[in-house]
Design goal:
Length: about 625
């Protein structure tokens, strides 16, 4: 470790005055890793330092190379790394590695000679081609072929006829660099041999050569995507010229073989996404019969990068496929198309026998421009999913209605969904109410609110000054003494700004109409009364008429505190614990009360400290069904 630190310090001092680029972020860790006792960690470090040409590592790598106690293979990797860092070899001393008694170092020297060696390289390569070790000779053949190309075939032919796993990597490189028809045929055979494929792929992964592309592509149909060799093939393809890969894939697709088409489609999805591959893939898919192939093709073509609008007719055709998974996938592809009217194309999908297809269609419609929807006829258009037995389908249909509907759709929607508003399914009721709320004209939202049993029409007055302890909530203000909507009262309020309170200000407050403008039934006191809504008390009065006396269930909730009177009698009081700038919700549910025949008056005293301020009352029978009432 001390030697390593000295090397680092010396290198830093030597470079201190030079404007050299800083080493990559992982260089320090890799330098330390060279000192590891694990040859795997050392090999990883050498690969990194060479690939990134970390000049700071020069001395440490050279020390490892000259360490006779180290394994000869690791020393060979150090020789290769050193040549990468220095981008050359020293002719005066490199010959000793060519003549070294350890074959691993001679093989490494042959690898170095693929790129380095200058005028002496040919001599050294000739020496190594006569080596007694087949691995050394194969590496020398690769260096020879890199220089001589097809002219190297006579040498490469002899050395690569029966490669062993130990030198399959070198053999593959020699064949790839040679590149003639005979060499590529032999390389294809080598790649198809299970015990040779892994090392062979390692050998050619960094070689950029168009003839290698079909060889790599031909390996894919017989491999699972989880296979390590599959990933190595992708790496090899990524290192090729992209136009050449695209051209090779086009030919690969046009072969018509379903396994090839399927592999190409998956490759487009994970690697290329080249729009020019769309037409040949689409033509091949038109002849495909296997579900797996069509699915892979749809996934590829449906990508936004593949210009899906060019393929919308194909997607529309597969909407009628016998497999529901294909129909669903076709809809998801169509959802990415921007130049079509989805409401027209997906009409039949809304009555599909498979709920998953209907869900896919509704989800797609939620993402489309509302202007394309059949205005005023959307409820009829959605009739099947709105009445579906599948809760998810119905909920999605409500969302589409909410997204694309207009005021012209409100009355038909109200007629279709009113039963849900008066039902006991809380989730569906809320979804239907939300959809109707998006359609309803502003002056008709109260109809949706009242249908659910909420009190929708109020008279309100406030605010009266409160504090954090709700002191004013426990005081009697004028509106509690008598209800006279014509009267006004003096009230005090304060502004609370940046943690401080201004002096109290007096003003006159009057009664005004308070409307529940949200379908969840909440009367927003803060928006009905003059600001501020903090440290405030307000009153709300609602009159309802029922034809006969009856007992009903009253649900009350609000933020922060409420006191309720019915026909002059206090029936409830709740105060939620205060939490700064958070919802403080008080509630009193399932309260049984008696309504008289005729008009019944609810008076609410509501208090707030800060944050939201609202109150809500709902009347139902003992089964949870909203009771009928009207506003006098």
């Amino acid at each position: 470790m001390i030697r390593l630190l000295h090397s680092i310090v010396a290198a830093l001092l030597a470079c201190a005055s030079l404007p050299a680029a800083p080493p990559p972020a992982g260089a320090g860790r890799m330098l330390q890793q060279l000192e590891s006792e694990s040859w795997i960690e050392q090999a990883e470090a050498l690969h990194y330092l060479g690939e990134h040409r970390v000049e700071l590592a020069n001395d440490a790598v050279r020390a490892l190379l000259n360490n006779k106690a180290a394994h000869s293979w690791i020393r060979g990797r150090a020789l290769l790394t050193l040549s990468q860092i220095e981008n050359e070899v020293d002719p005066g001393e490199f010959g000793k590695w060519v003549a070294h008694d350890q074959s691993a170092l001679r093989a490494a020297a042959a690898e170095v000679l693929e790129l380095h060696g200058g005028n002496s390289a040919t001599t050294w390569i000739d020496i190594l081609l006569k080596d007694a070790d087949p691995a050394v000779k194969c590496h020398a053949a690769a260096a020879h072929a890199r220089r001589k190309k097809e002219a190297a075939w006579a040498v490469v032919d002899q050395l690569t006829a029966t490669p062993a796993p130990t030198f399959a990597r070198a053999s593959a490189r020699a064949l790839a660099f040679t590149g003639n028809e005979a060499a590529l045929t032999r390389l294809a055979k080598q790649l198809a041999t299970p015990e040779l494929i892994r090392e062979s792929l390692r050998g050619i992964s960094g070689i950029q050569s168009a003839p290698l592309i079909p060889l790599l592509l031909n390996l894919l149909p017989d491999l699972e995507e989880t296979d390590l060799n599959y990933a190595a093939i992708l790496t090899g393809l990524q290192n090729q010229e992209w136009k050449e890969v695209t051209a090779g894939m086009a030919d690969f697709i046009k072969s018509g073989d379903e396994k090839r088409v399927r592999s190409a489609a998956r490759l487009i999805t994970t690697l290329t996404r080249s729009p020019e591959l769309g037409p040949p893939l689409r033509e091949a898919l038109a002849k495909a019969t296997q579900t797996e192939t069509i699915e892979a093709g749809l996934i590829a073509l449906g990508s936004a990068a593949m210009n899906p609008d060019e393929h919308h007719q194909f997607f529309s055709k597969t909407l009628k496929h016998e497999e529901s998974s294909i129909r669903s996938l076709s809809i998801r592809c169509l959802a990415h198309c921007k130049e079509i009217n989805h409401y027209e194309i997906l009409r039949e999908s809304l009555v599909d026998e498979d709920p998953e297809v209907i869900r896919a269609a509704l989800s797609a419609l939620k993402r489309q421009p509302a202007v394309n929807a059949p205005q005023g006829r959307l409820v009829a258009y959605l009739e099947a999913p709105l009445s579906s037995d599948d809760e998810t389908v119905r909920a999605l249909a409500y969302e589409v209605l909410s997204h694309a509907g207009s005021e012209a759709d409100f009355r038909p929607a109200m007629a279709a969904l009113e039963e849900l508003l008066t039902g006991t399914d809380e989730i569906l009721r809320a979804a239907a109410a939300k959809a109707l709320g998006a359609l309803a004209p502003e002056d008709q939202i109260g109809e949706v609110v009242a249908a659910q049993g909420y009190l929708a029409h109020w008279m309100v007055i406030g605010t009266f000054l409160n504090d954090k302890e709700h002191k004013a909530f426990h005081e009697v203000h004028e509106p509690e003494k008598e209800i006279d909507f014509e009267k006004s009262y003096k009230a005090t309020y304060i502004w609370l700004l940046e943690g401080r309170s201004d002096k109290p200000i007096e003003r006159e407050v009057t009664w005004g109409e308070g409307i529940v403008d949200r379908t969840d039934g909440k009367l927003a006191m803060s928006s009905q009364l003059p600001p501020p809504g903090s440290f405030a008390v307000g009153y709300a009065v609602a009159d309802i008429h029922v034809d006969t006396a009856r007992e009903v269930i009253l649900d009350i909730d609000g933020d922060d505190a409420f006191r309720i009177w019915l026909n002059g009698e206090q029936i409830s009081e709740k105060i939620a614990p205060y939490q700064h700038r958070k919802d403080c919700i008080a509630e009193h549910l399932d309260l049984q009360v008696k309504l008289v025949a005729g008009t019944n008056r609810f008076i609410v005293k509501s208090a707030n400290v800060d944050h939201r301020w609202w109150v809500r009352l709902r009347l139902t029978d003992s089964n949870g069904i909203p009771i009928p009432f009207r506003t006098p």
